[in-house]
């Protein structure tokens, strides 16, 4: 076990100064110094709420009144998302309690009129998922409708990206009578329609468009087990995983399972076709037991040599890490493929425990960060 040096006295002093600076707020920079990075973001998030003590309605966005959920000024949802990203769970609970009980910042959880007028966006979706446990039934029904509209937008964007790699390779030797835009053969179409050129109009009339055929992939059905870490830092990954799983669900080449986990394991495969139901069941903020999730994935596998276990996590294991390695070794040793996808931060940069990820790679797992389209391409090559 490696030795970890205790923090120096200078580091301890800086930590105490930062904490006091966050408690006291603005006006003490000359004594305690300024803040930067995430500490400055924490200060802004606290000021958004607690500055109301001195100036009701004031916020860090320049004094606009709170309560506007319009597309151009998502003050409350953005603040909720920042709080859940920047603070530990106990602090989040205290901030939420103060927001609701002390400062009546209730727009997201009690005001159905505001939610009914809100424009769907991914920022608003995340804020709803963070606060749905605080909503009454009427507001929750409106929130669910918002979630459905945002999910529909994301599905439209991702569905073709995910399914395209499974549609087969172009067969340029054969023509097809099926008119699909992605199979359009522009060269043959132009060449064979040159006789319809109208020089007086300087226009080419395409009377007969030509399309490529596609080669069908002859594949046995593979089993795809998607494990998604739902701890507090994983919300963006959970959203994309739920939607990606729904896209995979209808592919004949795959039999898809979707499993959420923190310190417990919840199989939501029955809701896989509807990512809205999946997302509304997410419980953010718990611990993490990756080893237990891998153990459950192993129990689902029918044919190890035609099984892929997709682990979406930040690799920060809360349980003894030895079990995680043992379960990974058992899956890989049985002939299954283990693919670990690192969580992405809000700027799409990978955020994960590099040591654990490196150890899994040494055991034979594939580890990386992929967009949904890149993931689909990787799986299509594996099962093709």
Automatic annotation (TrEMBL):
InterPro entries: LolB, Uncharacterised_CoxE, vWFA_dom_sf. It holds the Pfam family VWA_CoxE. This is VWFA domain-containing protein.
